[in-house]
From TrEMBL:
Residues 1-25 form the signal peptide. Residues 48-299 form the Periplasmic binding protein domain. One of its GO terms (cellular component) is cell envelope. Belongs to the bacterial solute-binding protein 2 family. This is Monosaccharide ABC transporter substrate-binding protein (CUT2 family). InterPro entries: Peripla_BP_I, SBP_2_dom. Pfam families: Peripla_BP_4. It is found in: Cell envelope. One of its GO terms (molecular function) is carbohydrate binding. The keyword Cell membrane does not apply.
Amino acid sequence: MARVGIGRLRARLVATGMVLACALAAGCSEGDPVNTERGGAGAQVKTIGLMVQDLSNPFFQSMANGVKSGAEKIGATVNVQDGRQDLGAQNEQIDAFIQQQIDVLLINAVDSDGIGPAVERAKAAGIKVVAIDVAARGAEAQVTLDNTAAGNLACTYLADQIGGAGDILLINGTPISSVQDRVTGCKQALQNYPQIKIVSEQNGDNGRAKALTIATDMLTANPTVKGVFGINDPTALGATLAAQQAGINGLVIVGVDASPEAVAELQKPESMFKATAAQDPNTQGGIALEMAQKLFAGEALEQQSVLVPTEMITRENLAQYKGWQ
């Protein structure tokens, strides 16, 4: 009896805390109750919150399509929020989702560690949280590309294409697990090529415009490099444009994503953009929702972390690549 009483008291305290927290968010009021006891054996998800880093990126549009397709099959609604690469915005969005009392939250965090406190608030409010594409501290499960393998494959391809020797550039990105894992995989691959040296490494914001500026400066300072690894396609394509504008030829530039823009660039025989490690954001979205549904229904997951495999897309196999959905 004592344990039951403590559990109820804890639930009331959590609910009270959520009300006070939500009172600070737009659209919340002090009298809005937060139900922290949703889901359970056989429960069906009805409301889904999906948070992505940047909806202007086709990658996240494809991810949203995967979630929406899965939601239609179970009769659920999806509220998609654009994080705008802003941790503060994602914090506010989570507080709004708490007040809306959604059932599950699928989160593509702009900062894997920094989003942790907001994830804990969502969980305390009875929301099941699944990280998608990148890790999010505190999430109950996650589905991601095998990003270490992606970085390894991309840089192995790059190394082979430049003959196993020479200087290269590495354009890094924001502090999220997917980016960090790709860089780790790249550097692991380059350990097999002692005559290749990363002569410059700088952080971008995962976008093309920033990569264009960074790559322009890096190429000016290192005009004899043979290749560039960008942590995603927008970054690699920005570097490609920088090289073109600088009048540089003969570079080998690789990325990660196999996005529609990357496919279009690979279709240009003269382009220095040579290859990209494929992602499948649509599939990631569908798997994340399936995991969230199981958690909401009180079912045990076979695995808490799912890795989606990758492959290199080059001009040689481009015709067989189906692309994003």
